Amino acid sequence: MLSLIWPIAIIVISNVFYQICAKSVPNEMNPFASLTVTYTISAIVSLILFFIVNKGGNPFHEVAKTNWAPFVLGIVIVGLEGGYIYAYKAGWSVNTVPVLQAAICAILLLFVSFFLYKEALSWKKIVGIVICLIGLVFLNLK
Fold first, then answer.
1. Residue 18: pLDDT above 90?
2. Would you say 108 and 129 are in contact if contact means Cβ atoms under 8 Å apart?
3. What is the residue-wise DSSP string for 48-85?
């Protein structure tokens, strides 16, 4: 059970701090300069964690296993994080942007999972889409 819970706990805690940090990037700082600092720190921490988790591991052997996904993921993450920083600079609130993107993303991923991965699209999931759409309406009411 713990093996199911701890990854979600890390995601949730990290996401909360992520939103706080994205909102706290100084307005006068270029978002991509901020991301350069962010990814420098991320690369260092990732390398340290690689050696902690993989005692005696060789990162060059791991890099040799690379396919297209890490390269595209790197580009996608810059878009994701740059988008959040720009959204906050444009005046979006922390209590709206993550929920809005999560709802839209959940709806899109239901279709991606169905068409790309052949996962089931049940009535429960369709009802979930409707609830997400209703939630988006309530988020945008003033």
1. yes
2. no
3. HHHHHHSTT--HHHHHTT--HHHHHHHHHHHHHHHHHH
